[in-house]
Task: inverse folding
């Protein structure tokens, strides 16, 4: 039994607020970028090199003139070592600057591949505590040099590029309702859902969630719609004879989700609204579906739910979410 | 608590692509194998503990933005599931332990 409670992350790092969905999303995106980003995209290509026979004094001059702290050493096209300012300082102490580079260069070379992701380089930096890494190709030919500064710059550029792309998409989408003038504008998205298609289960609802975010919906609204859409989508996959259509209708102050199918229909609608009631097969239940909570969840997520069903004919489910105070493009509604 | 600490302490196997798990902060958890219950109960940044290992857990995890899925009792997701998880940025972790044990340990680690 422990008597003292371990410090929470917040206490340790002094965060003033809990991490929100949005923060988490952004952190993950930066991580993703550092995996996507390859060393070759951020490394410095035009590198200055020296050779093993050159006197240390000349190497020092090269470092000084170019304001750099290390040089790769090349012999007949092959990478044989690195000479850094620190090595030259050691030579200086012994008054050996006239000696050739090869006497003081370091030959244990730490390299990264040009095709590695930036994350590999970051790992190597922290393991080896080095200031720069040599970038090589498959055949160990020198391609460039990479420093922590190059990585920071590369990630910042990528974030900016990425952010701009999503911004542009979001901007275009969220202006839809302003730019197209009508007495009542509705954006309709339809998804054909196949019966028994568990492989694609959840794809439509995840597209719906993304579409709503791009249209400028608040994160909580998009999440509620996403969950309701997911349950409705899975109902079509699990319970219908031929699948059905999942439809999203977006208006500035209202989101309507609906499903339509052609059977088998529900015998007792009141029964299916009871928590825990399910007609799912054992096979489907083994996958974790058929908890009898689908419609119950939908009801919790949406403001209004209507279900109409005729046995032998089919079922129509309509779910509405109202966004009275703000429009989807983020502006307050006019009074 | 960050996910790396949890992975280390629970000795979890990472099934999806490696990432910097130290920057993923988890807040609480939810345990169930019934997907609809998870939909209703799990919050974003939660850990989800389940012994389900099929493709559909990825859609649920991604919809809810859970921090990671811990698959218990050595249930093994197939390649399609792992690929889809990588595609959607969902982290899948695995352990031979029971869900009960994992929850107990997490609770003791003050993930509540």
Result:
């Amino acid at each position: 039994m422990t008597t003292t409670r371990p410090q929470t992350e917040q206490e340790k790092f002094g965060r003033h607020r809990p991490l929100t969905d949005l923060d988490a999303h952004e952190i993950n995106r930066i991580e993703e970028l550092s995996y996507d980003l390859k060393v070759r995209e951020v490394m410095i290509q035009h590198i200055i090199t020296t050779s093993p026979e050159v006197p240390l004094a000349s190497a020092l001059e090269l470092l000084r003139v170019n304001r750099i702290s290390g040089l790769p050493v090349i012999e007949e096209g092959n990478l044989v070592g690195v000479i850094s300012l620190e090595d030259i300082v050691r030579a200086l102490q012994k008054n050996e600057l006239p000696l050739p580079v090869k006497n003081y260069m370091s030959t244990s070379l730490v390299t990264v591949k040009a095709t590695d992701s930036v994350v590999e380089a970051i790992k190597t930096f922290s393991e080896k505590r080095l200031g720069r890494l040599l970038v090589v190709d498959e055949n160990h030919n020198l391609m460039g040099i990479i420093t922590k500064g190059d990585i920071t710059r590369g990630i910042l550029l990528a974030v900016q590029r990425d952010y701009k792309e999503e911004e542009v998409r979001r901007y275009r989408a969220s202006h839809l309702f302003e730019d197209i003038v009508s007495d009542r504008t509705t954006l309709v998205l339809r998804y054909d859902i196949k019966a028994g298609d568990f492989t694609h289960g959840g794809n439509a609802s995840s597209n719906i969630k993304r579409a709503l975010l791009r249209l400028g919906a608040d994160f909580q609204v998009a999440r509620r719609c996403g969950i309701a859409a997911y349950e409705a989508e899975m109902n079509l996959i699990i319970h219908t004879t031929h699948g059905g259509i999942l439809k999203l209708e977006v208006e500035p102050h209202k989101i309507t989700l609906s499903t339509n199918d052609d059977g088998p229909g529900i015998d007792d609608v009141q029964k299916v609204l009871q928590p825990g009631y399910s007609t799912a097969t054992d096979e489907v239940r083994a996958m974790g579906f058929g908890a009898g909570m689908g419609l119950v969840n939908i009801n919790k997520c949406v403001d209004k739910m209507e279900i109409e069903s005729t046995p032998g004919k089919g079922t129509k489910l309509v779910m509405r979410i109202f966004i009275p105070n703000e429009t989807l493009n983020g502006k307050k509604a006019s009074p | 608590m960050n996910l790396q600490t949890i992975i280390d302490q629970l000795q979890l196997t990472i099934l999806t692509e490696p990432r910097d798990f130290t920057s993923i902060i988890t807040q609480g958890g939810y345990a169930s194998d019934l997907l609809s219950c998870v939909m209703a109960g799990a919050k974003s940044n939660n850990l989800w503990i389940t012994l389900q290992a099929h493709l559909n857990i990825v859609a649920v995890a991604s919809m809810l933005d859970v921090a990671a899925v811990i698959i218990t009792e050595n249930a093994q997701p197939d390649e399609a599931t792992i690929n889809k998880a990588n595609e959607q940025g969902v982290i899948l972790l695995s352990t031979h332990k029971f869900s009960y044990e994992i929850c107990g340990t997490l609770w003791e680690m003050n993930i509540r």
Q: What stands out?
A: The longest strand of chain B covers residues 47-50.
